[in-house]
Amino acid sequence: MVLVNADGLVMGRVASFCAKKALEKEEVVVVNAEKVVLTGTKNDLLHKYKTKFDRNVKGNPEHGPKFSRMPDRVMRSSIRGMVPIKRKTGKDAIARVKVFIGTPAKYKDQEVVDLSKFKVDETRRYVVLGELTKLLGAKW
User: Fold this and answer.
1) What is the rounded distance in angstroms from the CA atom of residue 1 to the CA atom of residue 36?
2) CATH T-level fold of 2-136
3) What is the torsional sign of CA 134, 76, 46, 49?
4) How far is the C-alpha of 103 from the C-alpha of 106, rounded, in Å?
5) Are 31 and 100 in contact (CB under 8 A)?
6) Which of 21, 31, 38, 102 has the fewest CB atoms within 10 Å around its CB?
7) Tens of pLDDT along 57-69?
8) What's this model's pTM, rounded to 2 decimal places?
9) pLDDT by residue (tens digit) across 26-52?
10) In the 8-state DSSP scheme, what is residue 115?
11) What is the pLDDT of residue 40?
12) Three-class SS of residue 106?
């Protein structure tokens, strides 16, 4: 099992790492998904996700598509986008991925994989996923 603490890490890099490990038939658990970082300005990211989540833009709001605003679900969907989901290998891989807000008691004492190379550069502009999802209307 691979345990990833996503605190302060860039979301795309963590997602590609998790997708690769899941495709290699390893169980992947991501904790602190609300503390993962998206690079870019706050206004650009807010506009991008608001257009994605705005149902009126996507046709009939009754029929969807409906996207979750919860940070763990957003993180999971970014991992899902990096596996071949239409094939059996991709479906099996995404079934091996678990993403949590915070750290459950079950995983507090376990060893975390060192992903310090995926830390965000402090000179870049970035937004924490938890803040972004709260602006989009998530209640957690």
Assistant:
1) 20
2) Ribosomal Protein L13p; Chain: A; (3.90.1180)
3) negative
4) 8
5) yes
6) 102
7) 666 777 777 788 9
8) 0.91
9) 999 999 999 999 999 999 999 999 888
10) -
11) 95
12) helix
The one-letter code for the residue type at 27 is E
Asked whether the beta carbons of 81 and 93 are under 8 A apart, the reply is no
Task: Return the DSSP state at 116.
Answer: G
Domain ranges of the chain: 2-136
Q: Cis (ω within 30 of 0) for the bond into 61?
A: no
Higher-pLDDT residue of 56 and 136 is: 136
131/115 Cα distance (integer angstroms): 22
pLDDT in tens, 11-23: 999 999 999 999 9
